[in-house]
Amino acid sequence: MYTVPLPRIGTDIAWRDAAKRLIGAGVSPDQILWDFDTEMGELFATATPLPPVTRRIKAPQSFVEMANWVVWHKDPQRFARLYALLWRLRHQPGLMQDRADSELAKLRHMEKGVHRCKHKMKAFVRFRDLRQGGDRRSFAAWFEPTHHTVEPTAPFFARRFADMDWMIATPDVTAQFVDGNLSFHPGQPKPDLPEDATEALWGTYFCNIFNPARLKVSAMTSEMPKKYWKNLPEAQHIQGLIAGAEAKVQQMRDTAPTLPPERAAKIKRQLGGDQADDS
Amino acid sequence: MARLDLSQKLAILSDAARYDASCASSGTIRRDSRDGKGLGSTEGSGICHAYAPDGRCISLLKILMTNFCIYDCAYCINRVSSNVQRARFSVDEVVQLTIEFYRRNYIEGLFLSSGIIQSPDKTMEDMLRIAKRLREVENFRGYIHLKSIPDAAPELIEQAGLYADRLSINVELPTDNSVKAYAPEKNPATIRKAMGDVRACKDVAGERSYTGKRGKRFVPAGQSTQMIVGADGSTDATILGQSTQLYGNYKLKRVYYSAFSPIPDATAKLPLIKPPLVREHRLYQADWLLRFYGFGVDEITAARPDGNLDLEVDPKLAWALQNRAQFPVDVNKGSKEMLLRIPGFGTRTVGRILTTRRHRRLRYDDLLRMGASLKKAQAFITAQDWSPGGLTDSANLRARFAPPPEQLSLF
């Protein structure tokens, strides 16, 4: 029996390395316990060393890519499921093309969940200006991801916000980018971030880009689920916008057509004149 | 009049911009700022940073440079004869808003449009100054979408294409006659010419010179346009016919359909009806069928004699219900073309079916796991363990999908 410890930071590399050794040594899935971030406690902490790399087993590229995503899922069974599929792949090389295999379908579903979480993190992280002075501006955000997506998503922020320092703090893992260097640290409780006046402008924009005549709340919540709202500064306006929408549209209907402002006639005369000149 | 502060201007000029449907930030070249000398990145797929309660995605800071306008387009909130409050951003204000919003991860970039002030050229020049500042002074590498001003000089449009990821110009209404009636100062021929110019510039930029070098990137995310639906009497057949021509002639990336919705201080010329949102939705579905599923306009609009799409069921299902003789299709044998026509099957599901059936025969549950919507598809397919029996030709098949009859509302 092998107990394989997997760290919270660098989970992907640790899992891949362990899986390579175990599959090479022909260790069957029922002989392995995967222990993420010592969650199993002391009870299972047997120090059976992993087998050395003896034989290289080739896994299809599509499996490797999928595994690189699935390891970040929150399901405790993810490592065991991945290894079980890898085990089957030894004798069923075409398995990855079988989109209807139920085990593969489950893993693909988990992969999709991680992708979605990563996508939502790219979308919903909201930085606040820390106003610290100095050459580089610094910003910080608090975010609560559904899966363990900070590590695979942070490089996106590093590519995008390379000329500033930033931190994304989460209960899971905290990412820090200082002077062009990205590092990861243990998760933390919500930090006290300073108020940022730009949030009010963003709220103004959010309220005014909304068209009250097209109210479609379910379309909004399916893409921006309520669980994210508490960390989105614009979300505080949502209830008010929904409540006031009907009245706003009714007001547009009820208001009688107004007479054009004086300048309209003047401009029209000028335009009319121009067009006459053109012809 | 008291001077407006930034927040008031933002309120007026985003309110004025919300009738433009496009908020796409996808499909451009990959850029990033890893060199530490700039700000921003674009990575192919767009990101929707927020959703408003109208269900629309907020990806870009979508604003007007100014809502002063010398034109009098009946459907437009900013027409010269409207009494809405007017405002104008300075170059600096737009640049600062874009950069500060971007740094806080609120947006993917800027979608800048404008009312027409003084002259089309003057307006376009001012918009160019903003784009140039963002790219050359702020080293902004995020997404920029500029709305071309009709009648602006071709040189200005050419310049705009070097700064912007996307250019768009709205055809506004589906027929030339409607444009004449509702947007008297706009000329459909010049709008089409502008689209033709953009296409020509993009074609030239895509070619390699004799040294094998590519020219400067010109609107890498292509051009798009928008049509207002429901303001004039055009049928869906007319609208989709127009779209097909636009896609073909000008290689447009997207045609947006915008259901005409009540605007503040509306003109008496247009009724303030409830916006035809379902119709808009059906047009988008039909647009997709034309571009990715191999359907022709005639096929899609033939279902009803009045030339409009069925509002109760989606256009693919409507077509299948009309052409039941071609069903059921065997998912283990059917051609790709025919699989794409099965209601409830998307392009992805079809791709998965094609790869998997090389290895083994597909059953009903397999299709479920591949993401097919079998509630719709089951009447139109056969699989290893599934046959629809008499379902395909049953008289009440349509009733299974159409919403139950409803009492008419007073609108």
List the helices and strands and how they pair.
The complex is a heterodimer of chains A (279) and B (411).
Chain A: E1 2-6, H1 11-24, E2 32-36, H2 61-70, H3 78-89, H4 102-124, E3 128-129, E4 138-142, H5 150-160, E5 165-169, E6 173-178, E7 181-186, H6 198-209, H7 217-223, H8 238-254, H9 262-278
Parallel strand pairs in A: 1-2, 4-5
Antiparallel strand pairs in A: 3-4, 5-6, 6-7
Chain B: H1 6-15, E1 50-51, E2 57-58, E3 60-64, H2 91-103, E4 109-113, H3 120-137, E5 143-147, H4 154-163, E6 166-168, H5 176-182, H6 188-206, E7 223-229, H7 236-250, E8 254-259, H8 277-292, H9 297-301, H10 315-322, E9 329-330, H11 336-339, H12 347-356, H13 364-369, H14 374-377, E10 381-382, H15 397-401
Parallel strand pairs in B: 3-4, 4-5, 5-6, 6-7, 7-8, 9-10
Antiparallel strand pairs in B: 1-2
Written account of the structure:
The complex is a heterodimer of chains A (279) and B (411). Chain A is an alpha/beta fold and 279 residues long. In chain A, helix 2 crosses helix 4 and helix 4 packs across helix 5. With 411 residues, chain B is α/β, with parallel strands linked by helices. Chain B contains 15 helices and ten strands. The longest helix of chain B is centred in the middle third of the chain and has 19 residues. The two termini of chain B are 39 Å apart. At the A-B interface, helix 4, strand 3, helix 5, helix 6 and helix 7 of A face helix 1, strand 1, strand 2, helix 2 and helix 12 of B.
The biggest beta sheet of chain B reads: 6 strands, parallel
Average pLDDT of chain A: 91
What's the total helix number of chain B? 15
The geometry of chain B reads as globular
Major sheet description of chain A: 5 strands, mixed
| Percentage of residues in DSSP E strands of chain A | 5-15%
Features of the shown structure:
heterodimer; A: alpha/beta; two-stranded parallel sheet; 9 helices; B: 411 residues; alpha/beta; six-stranded parallel sheet; two-stranded antiparallel sheet; 15 helices
